[in-house]
Amino acid sequence: MHYPETYTSTSHHAEGERNVVATVRNLKKSFGDREVLKGMNLDLYESENLVILGRSGTGKSVLIKCMVGLIRPDSGTIEVLGQNVFSLNPDELNALRLQVGFSFQGSALYDSMTVRENLEFPLKRNLKIFDKHKLEELVTTALEDVGLAHTINQMPAELSGGMKKRVGIARTLILKPKIMLYDEPTSGLDPITSMEINDLILSVREKYKTSSIIITHDISSAKHTSDRIIALIDGQNKMEGTFEALSETTDPDLEPFFKY
Amino acid sequence: MRLRNFLLRVADIHRFVVQVIKHFFMPPYEVREIIRQCFAVGNRSLFLITFTAFIAGIVFTRQSRPSLASFGAESWLPSLVSQAVVRSLGPLITGLICAGKLGSNIGAELGSMQVSEQIDAMEVSGTRPFSYLVVSRITATTLMLPLLVVYADVVALLGSFMTVNFINSSSFALYFNEVATNVTYLDVFSSLIKSAFFGFAIGLVGSYAGYHSEKGTTGVGKAANSAVVISMILIFVIDLLGLQVTNIFRR
């Protein structure tokens, strides 16, 4: 796929039947002398699970952090739900962020709060919901969706790694995002728990109709969750396609992923 | 390169302070969180302040008495102790205790939140963590330090009175009448304003160190450590500046 340097997109332009919900064009980011992203491009389509596959340190997490404005890129453009992320004022950026769920690699649960308080926090702060019954209903539903309703009064320290990831996902789902960004959702988990998280990613898409970007180097997770994969090698798109198409590659940078 | 890094750091601190001051005058305020933090500030430091202020009152009285007695000026003891406690000893003890206790706590708390991406998680959920985490803590320390200083002054004077009473059987009314006569409004107000600056410095340094903590557990340790060291230095600098300004009014 060719991405022109001066690409501009409209908010929801169709390619075939599908609408684009996020675009990244020629994204570059360096940390000191180290150039992490060297002109990354992507399109995320509506209701699609897009996997970004690559080795550690190739800028996968930097990419999605740029997409929510946590990191400012050196150059390039990012449009999410039709809005240029870096031309928004703080209020507009906050409003956009409410529509984009971010599941962190280490879950990032607020460790001084219970699971209930973790989930209530964005509701109270952003949606100004203070009604106890409404809060209870929303929190319980979100926890049921990730299969952890029984942990509602537990502290994050009492949960296993897999449970923390699920609660982290529930905390983002409670705001009903249109786009989900998963940063290494299965890293540090055993194969069975990893598979449960993969199933959860698929069920989230089914229930919430989200478009997702899944950052991973876990090939079984990529196989299980992806509609499409972009291989990010050395800060650039190396290859793009379905899992089946990419698994037949003989590219020396990419072949080892599918070989082992 | 080192100069460049230093200048970048100074610019970063300047931006941070400007942002804090802007938030002080920019509603909405995090009232519930500020109240919660005020309680935490008082709760965390009350025991230590009681203990140290009481002992400081006793020690200062015991050490000053022989010198005054040698001039036959033992009756000036309440006056000397009260002025020393209200003007300098109370604010300084409270400031240093809070710098150690609260500075490290704020630095480590925010530092571990930064390292474990909890601050990023708040940011991406549109929660405005700066106002919630930083401004509420700085407001709480700024508001609570003057109250804690008043408390420390009272405890130190009680310690002093008990020492005097133990040696001379002096009455409570007589002692505190002497105190009230010799402490001026200027002493009290300058002490309170100075303590508010102490609180601001402790909250600001702790929050900055934690909010900009490097990744990893060593980053959290560094944040806590630098929060304590820098706020202690700032407390002495503010004390010195406060003295100069108060002396202008005293003349």
Question: Which structural traits does this protein have?
Answer:
heterodimer; A: 260 residues; alpha/beta; Rossmann fold; six-stranded mixed sheet; five-stranded antiparallel sheet; 9 helices; 35% helix; 26% strand; disordered N terminus; B: 251 residues; mainly alpha; 8 helices; elongated
CATH topology value of chain A = Rossmann fold
- What is Rg of chain A? 18 Å
Oligomerization status of the protein chains = heterodimer
* Regions with little confidence, pLDDT below 50 for 5+ residues of chain A: 1-14
Report the span from N to C terminus of chain B. 47 Å
Largest interface: pair, residues per side: A-B, 24 and 15 residues
Order of helices and strands of chain B: HHHHHHHH
CATH first level of chain A: Alpha Beta
Number of helices of chain A: 9
Biggest pleated-sheet summary of chain B? none
Note the gap between the termini of chain A: 27 Å
Largest sheet geometry of chain A = 6 strands, mixed
The named CATH superfamily of chain A: P-loop containing nucleotide triphosphate hydrolases
Order of helices and strands of chain A: EEEEHEEHEHHHEHEHEEHH
β-strand amount of chain A: 25-35%
- Widest sheet: strand ordering of chain A: 7-8-9-4-10-11
Number of strands of chain A: 11
Keywords (chain A): ATP-binding, Nucleotide-binding, Transport
Protein name (chain A): ATP-binding cassette domain-containing protein
Pfam families (chain A): ABC_tran
GO molecular function (chain A): ATP binding; ATP hydrolysis activity
